[in-house]
Description:
single chain; alpha+beta; Beta Polymerase, domain 2; Hydrophobic Seed Protein; 6 domains; 4-stranded mixed beta sheet; 42 helices; 58% helix; 11% strand; HD_domain; EC 2.7.7.59; nucleotidyltransferase; EC 3.1.4.-; phosphoric diester hydrolase activity
Amino acid sequence: xxxxxxxxxxxxxxxxxxxxxAELRAGLVPLLRxxxxxxxxxxxxxxxxxxDGLVCARSLCEQMDRLVHIVHxxxxxxxxxxANPSAGERLAVVATGGYGRGTLAPGSDVDLLFLLPxxxxxxxxxxxxxxxxxxxxxxxxxxxxxxxxxxxxxxAGADMTIRTSLLEARFLFGDPELFDDLARRFDKEIIATSxxxxxxxxLKERDARVAKAGASRYLVEPNVKDGKGGLRxxxxxxxxxxxxxxxxxxxxxxxxxxxxxxxxxLFARCxxxxxxxxxxxxxxxGRAEERLTFDLxxxxxxxxxxxxxxxLSAVERFMKAYFLIAxxxxxxxxxxxxxxxxxxxxxxxxxxxxxxxxxxxxxGALLGEGFIIDNNRLNVENEEAFERDPVNLxxxxxxxxxxxxxxxxxxxxxxxxxxxxxxxxxxxxAEANKLFLEIITSKNAPEVVLRQMNEAGVLGRFVPDxxxxxxxxxxxxxxxxxxxxxxxxxxxxxxxxEAGHLGGEHPLANRIFPTIRNRRALYVAVFLHDIAKxxxxxxxxxxxVIARKLGPxxxxxxxxxxTVAWLVEHxxxxxxxxxxxxxxxxxxxxxxxxxxQTMERLKLLLVxxxxxxxxxxPGTWTGWKGQLLRNLYQETEVFLGGGAVDLARSERVRLAxxxxxxxxxxxxxxxxxxYASRHTPGYWMKTDETRxxxxxxxxxxxxxxxxxxxxxxxxxxxxxxxxxxILSPDHPRLLAIITGACAASGGNIVxxxxxxxxxxxxxxxxxxxRAFDRDEDELRRAERVAKAIERALKGEVxxxxxxxxxxxxxxxxxxxxxxxxxxxxxxxSNRQTVIEVSGLDRPGLLYDLTTAxxxxxxxIASAHIVTFGEKAVDVFxxxxxxxxxxxHAGRQATIRRALLDVFKGEETEAGLRRSx
Length: 916
């Protein structure tokens, strides 16, 4: 218990002679600070012990009530006593808004209304001002208003925010008659006459708030207060219910007929959990933090007591619990909206709410099988619709898709209450699986329907393997959504591609989709590709096993099932190959093609890969990734067709030189021949026709101008990248200098091609991801990067200092641990050793890696940079100084150690955090 009690504080002041407000604050504030700190510490200790968020929030509110009362008592006793107050010297102190609800988080605002009879007097103004100064000295965030009853009603009539604040007004102390007068008149003059307008305003306000905080309730860094499925949604539900049903406490909503007892218990469970999370967040950060960021998720999982289990880490189990609560909040929102709609059409009291609603709506258009069209939405004819025929639990969603009808919340609610009907019998029912397959493969709106099935709980019960990944988050910065939401969104992207809506963004996929023969297999594979996430084994391999089990159940043929299983097992192959391998190396295409084997699989894998990447989250898909996938597809298409890839190396070089000669008709033969001889065969085979022509002109102009260091840059909106070309005398640390200059000037490298001419000049192409939408802005940035590179290559700046200046001065505690790995492989390329390095990304990492490779006297032929959120995967094609592969085991071990040392500091830091 706190050592300081309200009476003790007031008695302490009573022994002092206080002459003015400043003296009072000097004596009062330190005592109140101690009172607050002790109360906070007690509330936090109790929260950690009981894990009851509402108890914590209410105890903090009660403490604030006592504190505000102490402040008022001290001021009227020592500064502004009023033994015989006049009619104008009456004052009621009222809690409003969140404080009025009787719950506070440690960092919550304290909203106060100083209620007057008609106008402010000198006495009331002095008391209010003195109170506020004390509260401000305590560093409390105080929202306050001083109004008469008449002013409150007038303001509430014109401002929905004030109206909402007054809806939860709670009397603290002072003149109770003033508060009673306000409450009575507010109910009679405002609430009784404006329910429809209030409901409409609150729902619109919710939509705007959710859009700002993040439209999906499955965002992996949710806003606990304002996000979809958060505390504000519950607040909004109660505001609306309180306004429409005229209740005072949430418990009264059962008697009012809005919730069943079970639904109210769910409301209470959601409220407690969200308050628990919010209070822990405020205590853990020492501020009013509302966003559940990755670093906080780990802290809260430990504070709340989650432990690893069933293949999930503690933080993943905590976040799964959070997202299931957010889903429940969504269900409660649908219930309230449905009931509000029912009130608008209700003509007489109903003995039984659910029975009355269904009976009233029998007049809708009958669809058969127990379904009706109710106010342009699909509803069930009566409560027995699912009990009579459990297949209707699937047919409900099939009809919604087939008829393009929204599902009435009542029907969805009844489906959720009927989940016990979904067992082995229904899961193996041929008709139910036929309908479900038609939902997945629909050309209408499978994403919408699957999401509704998921929210109703039907999808996870009908496909238990899907149920395992419902609300499962992946604790990384790459995936923006939970696994189930990602899969549903993937199906939506696939539907858009098939409909031709993304032709401008995905021209190749748009062109080949009509030629795909295994359409059903593709849709099922997209729906299942991450179905085994969260299991100890590799999710691609485990997913293929699940696909082989579900394919026949869904009604797929053996051949379709084999295709689905193959796609699930290899769904990452095309993305990984395109982004982290040298696509100009014939060995890359050969090894990829040997896995794919057929053109049909190549088409299917391309489209699945696009849907998968685009459904990861906003900004994950880029035009550069699209170009890489198209390049891989086209090279593999040629290989599978036995075409130009099999041409002799010398013949391909000759064709490339002939193409360039045609592009440079103004060059004398002698000059062109001299230029062509400067490039190695690798250059002619790896660069495209357009780039070769531009680089030829760049080298010619550079020589005429006598420049040894030259840069050029251009943007490519379709590929969403900017290309930098650098011409410079070659040396082992060249790429390190270039990557360091890019890092220092804010350039994010996604690819690099490095060539050396026969006369010792390096001709490097660096591909940067775009930072600006407008070309003029992007070109200005490219110019800054190019100048930084030129200055570094000319020795005008020390590159290490530039990079160090960009590193955080003090490494923040990282939420993620990515064990570094180095793989050295000589089978992936015919001419180079492939080194793949993965680990925790950071500013300057690529510079550190290329510096280490330079010190090892390795020539880098190409570099391919991929970032998956916090994880960087950098691949280098290298040779030794004699141009041969690195085959000696000792040399490979030295390379591996040097590259792992780049991560050593962070590994030590991560180890200290884990041991702590």
